[in-house]
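Rotation project, supervised by the postdoc (A.L.). Task for the rotation student: set up a whole-complex structure prediction and record inputs and outputs verbatim in this book. Inputs entered:
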Amino acid sequence: MSARLRLVLLLLMLAGTDAALAHSDAQGLAGGFFSGFAHPLRGLDHLIAMVGVGLWGAFLGRPAIWVLPVVFPLVMAFGGLLGLIGMPLPGVEVGIALSALVIGAMVALAARPPLWVAAVIVGAFAVFHGHAHGTELPEAANALAYSLGFVIATGLLHLAGIAFGLLVRWPLGNRAVRAGGGCIAAAGVGFLFGVW
Amino acid sequence: MSARTLWLALTALAMVPSLAGAHGDIKGLGSFYAGALHPFLVPAHLVALLGLGLLVGQRGLAFGRYPMLALLLALLTGLVASGSVAGFDLERPVLGGAALCALAVVAALPLPRWALFALAALIGAGIGLGSAPEGRFESARWSSLAGTGLGAFLAVIVVGALVDRLRPSWARVGIRIAGSWLAASALLVLALSFVTTPPVRGSSPVAGANAAR
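Outputs recorded:
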């Protein structure tokens, strides 16, 4: 390889580098929104549990299919407030891991509790998820933009779970959804014991 | 230099320009356009306008004709008076209105027309009063205020019209879910604004939103 070619390749490598888009120093509106939006997506425990909520809602059918995704963000906002003001909540990580375990197990075992019981279970876990999101509000990020970001990302993850859960109307799909619930519960066990 | 090397060098040069930093500031957009964008750049205003739009659309655009008139009048009044109310905390009323609208959407409450009227007036006045442009010449100031009024009003009309057209049951459910997202965010920040200075953040919880203005 000629020296000139090496120089050009070096230029290419240098040109490929870009500004680091770290979330912790997010500033202002766009930073706040994207930082909040990315938070539920960056944590596998959050992501799996949120998909589980949508999956369970779809599995239970109407009206749970929309009640659970409506209850979750509203209660999560309360947890987010606790996190934003710095109020400690014991066992946040355990609560998040348990949310994946319990909700996944509900789907895997085809549990069909009354709607209010399902809403209470989901709402109780929403506090832990909200607290985790609220605690990590970046300095100088806009609180409303950040909260909108994590609420919308959470809702979209619910939607992903609902989309998968809609397979439940077919026999094979029903088995696939329950198997998905089993995987979520297994992941919850992994989070609980620090495997992941 | 060979053709291959030249091609590589050109590729390298083409990759050097990074993310365009345009529009980092609203400078250069012109006062009218800057004013029109203002409601979309202040999160509390945007959430309130979206919440009101969802509510008006859910109840039906025809039902919301007079509340929309109230919104327009309150916006105009607020914008005209915006220079004289500096120092007031206008975020709480706007967020409160947004939360009420969004909760009504979630519950699909058949609000009476007077309640919709009151919510539209509250949000319109709050946004109008809270949109005073700073440090502008008189003509540019009025141009900016006109842009804000038009932008805010059109936002509600467009969202309302879109929602009004949605008929499938899954779409109506989607509207209620979107309402829950707005309600959650508005309630969170509203509650946060009532809490004393948070120990961890070191700044006012609403400082970010205020700084965005």
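Student's summary: Residues 104 and 111 of chain B are 8 Å apart (CA to CA).
Supervisor addendum: The two ends of chain B are 53 Å apart (CA to CA).
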